[in-house]
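Researcher: We're teaching a course module on how sequence relates to structure. For the next exercise, students receive a sequence and then see the predicted structure as tokens, so they can try to spot secondary structure elements on their own. Here is the exercise chain.
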Amino acid sequence: MSRITHLSDNPSILDEYMADLRSVDAQNNRESFRENIRKVGRILGYEISKSLNYEKSKIQTPLAEHAQNRLQDDVVLITILRAGLPLHEGMLSCFPKAENGFVSAYRKHDNDGGFEIEVGYVACPDLTDKVLILNDPMLATGSSFETAIKVLEDYGTPKSIHVAAVIASAQGVENVSQSLPEDVQIWIAAIDPDLNDQKYIVPGLGDAGDLAFGEKLQS
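Model: And here is the predicted structure for the students to work with:
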């Protein structure tokens, strides 16, 4: 089973950002919603950074030579479009030298109320021996993450894989932790108890993509 880090286990300023993201009274401001997602992304990125590899490197300050830890891992940030863009920006502010990739994965619903995850677009660098951080604001059933990981196998074998989300359902976390390789690390800002009949997280926050960018026409 994958290792799971649930950031909301310990109270922090993260809770303030999460409160604004969830509140219907605050969600009418798209700019503010995106910025709060970015803030959560920065926190997730910082927490992930503690698990990476560093090496002492000598640098020269104006006054003396100093041995400073420097990141040794090559990081690739990949987000699931479109909802993941603000989260991706927040994580990129933590890893400004990272390579970037994008996967367009969305639910294609059938007439019986079920759905499949369809991938329409992938842009990805070589992942060989790099640290892959795959991010999406919502981890509902876990199907999007599982599909994205499968698609990315064509781009090389990463040194390690991290999955990051703002809100996940308990069921989705269980699904991902069981279906993905056990060395995949899962980082979640908040884990909610339920999924509704449409497989949306409850209490959740609604549709992150629509709240960030506006409602879309259904095709």
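Model: If you want an answer key for the exercise: Residues 75 and 131 are 5 Å apart (CA to CA). The mean pLDDT is 92.
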